[in-house]
Amino acid sequence: MPYRVLEPRFPLGEVFMTAVTAEGTDPDEITKILHRHHSGDWGDLEAGDKQANEEALTHGERILSRYDLEAGSFYIVTEADRSMTTVMGVEEY
Predict the structure, then answer these.
(1) Which of 5, 48, 60, 73 is most buried, judging by how many CB atoms fall within 10 Å of its CB?
(2) What is each CA distance from 90 to 4, 66, 77, in whole angstroms?
(3) Enclosing domain of residue 61
């Protein structure tokens, strides 16, 4: 099966993680989903939300991804000005 290298599509700025997420989640899993987000793999969002992210790349708006993992569900949010990105559990959003 061929693979593809995922290239960053936008700046993340400073990266933060909520305390709840940091305490209860494998750091390697967080790194993987952060890389997916940074590369434009929006995870487990609906098609309309994925399209909104594609438009946000062009128009400089906030980017939101969702990843449903065995350890729980997480959002990653990159602010419109690309100054910061936050990883959090969906219950913290």
Answers:
(1) 73
(2) 28, 8, 11
(3) 14-92
Q: What is the pLDDT of residues 47-69, one digit of tens each?
A: 999 999 999 999 999 999 999 99
| Residue of 40, 38, 46 lying closest to 85 (CA atoms) | 38
Number of domains forming the structure of the chain:
1
What is the Cα–Cα distance from 5 to 23, expressed in whole angstroms?
A: 30
Q: Chain-centre distance of CA 73, in angstroms? A: 11
Residue pair 9/40 in contact by the 8 Å Cβ criterion: yes
- What 3-state class would DSSP assign to 84? strand
Whether pLDDT at 4 is above 80 = no
Give a yes or no: residue 6 inside a domain: no
Tokens, residue 47: 């098609």
Contact (Cβ atoms closer than 8 angstroms) between residue 13 and residue 77: no
Given a contact cutoff of 8 angstroms between Cβ atoms, the answer to whether 10 and 53 are in contact is: no
**Residue 77 contacts residue 64 (beta carbons within 8 Å):** yes
